[in-house]
């Protein structure tokens, strides 16, 4: 005889009071719903199987013919007449020697991976590319351009050096410069690119890159301070504007003095050309200005008539030969910025 339900018991006793509500946790209800196997006609009696945490103990199987050295493996048992309460689980039985080989292979592979992970890593050897060294940084020129007045801009454009205004570069990549100089061929005046291709450098390339005047006259350089009487007098006049009155003028001193010449006169034009030549075209091993170029600046009107682009290429060939002769360790005294840009 089946037991009475709550509703049948209330009808038999004549109790019309509302049935108490049973509050069940959602997790418990869902677990019972998943494990439900049979439902009664009135949907109130449930036959719930045991929870997964209380599974029936696995019965030990009979000892196989392999003896006590048999190895346990995981395999399904479709020939078993008894229905397993959880058919989606796999039953543990005793396997053969073939299963032993598979297990041993898995264990050996996992051990090998573990040994590889525990081995100390070899230190990474850094392969840093060598760098070139130069004192001709465009940083001072970039600073000077930011401080110029309108009168100074106009004076620079009159002598043909206005293209420097649009050169927005304030540093040189030294590793790139080393590679460019190493792959430059001064005899052919070209760069040897990967694959053996040659990139020839022309005068118009310098004009398009740096904006220098490209006249018909060749730039003249003084051999020394006593090159000629006219040059000595001109140099002394130019040197008197700086303090102290003796010694060579550094590029920093020239920049600070040049920025304060707001009128844009003749001395300002000469100073600007000397600064551009010292930082972008040709200089010495020391951070001083290139006073040798003053020989071509004795006449202000003739400054745009000189071929400053050809002078830059000539300086590039000369400095590359000197740099290679010094085992690529000396200061680069040529237009390294032109090669980089």
What's the Cα radius of gyration? 46 Å
Largest sheet: 3 strands, antiparallel
- The coarse silhouette is extended
Termini gap = 101 Å
What ranges have pLDDT less than 50 throughout 5 or more consecutive residues?
A: 21-25, 37-48, 61-81, 84-104, 109-117
- The computed structural class is mainly alpha
Give me the number of helical elements: 12
Q: Report the strand count.
A: 9
User: How are the strands ordered across the major sheet?
Assistant: 6-7-8
**What's the overall average pLDDT, rounded?**
76
Oligomeric state of shown chains: single chain
Helix content: 25-40%
Order of helices and strands: HHEEEEHEHHHEEEHHHHHEH
- Beta-strand percent range: 5-15%
Region (Disordered): 1-87
Biased composition (Low complexity): 61-81
Protein name: Aminotransferase-like plant mobile domain-containing protein
Q: If you had to describe this structure to a student in words, what would you say it looks like?
A:
The protein has 341 residues and is mainly alpha-helical. 39% of the residues lie in helices and 6% in strands. The protein contains twelve helices and nine strands. It has helices spanning 6-13, 26-34, 97-118, 139-146, 150-158, 174-182, 203-210, 229-239, 251-259, 266-281, 308-325, 336-340, and strands spanning 38-39, 46-47, 72-74, 92-94, 133-134, 184-185, 190-192, 198-200, 331-332. The strands form four sheets. It has a three-stranded antiparallel β-sheet with strand order 6-7-8. α7 (203-210) crosses α11 (308-325) and α9 (251-259) runs antiparallel to α10. The longest helix has 22 residues, at 97-118. 21% of the residues are buried. The model is unreliable at 21-25, 37-48, 61-81, 84-104 and 109-117 (pLDDT under 50). Residues 61-81 have a biased composition (Low complexity). Residues 1-87 are annotated as: Disordered. This is Aminotransferase-like plant mobile domain-containing protein.
